[in-house]
Design a protein that fits this description.
about 90 residues; mainly alpha; 4 helices; 2 strands; thiamine pyrophosphate; transferase; Dxylulose-5-P_synthase
């Protein structure tokens, strides 16, 4: 089981590095961003923004409500992407 997880992780990271080499912008939502930061030093060409959950307790609610309380919303992701592109919303 652990070996399968490690193989899946390596495949995911391999695909991620391929995306990074072929694109100018990387938006990561969730814990993947910290993994990217630890594993890779970008050459300065890639613009990268992680959107992560805060490190504090979020009260019980629906997943949509919890993400809104954490500030992880479609509007926030769109605003961060727009800022990377040099656009205002």
């Amino acid at each position: 089981m652990v070996q399968n997880c490690l193989k899946a992780q390596q495949a995911l990271l391999s695909n991620l590095w391929q995306l990074c080499s072929n694109h100018d912008i990387l938006m990561s939502v969730g814990g993947l961003g910290s993994r990217v930061a630890l594993d890779r030093q970008f050459d300065g060409r890639l613009k990268w923004r992680p959107i992560v959950l805060p490190d504090n307790y979020i009260k019980h609610a629906s997943p949509k409500e919890q993400l809104a309380l954490a500030g992880v919303t479609g509007h926030r992701i769109a605003a961060a992407t727009s800022s990377l592109l040099g656009r205002t919303r």
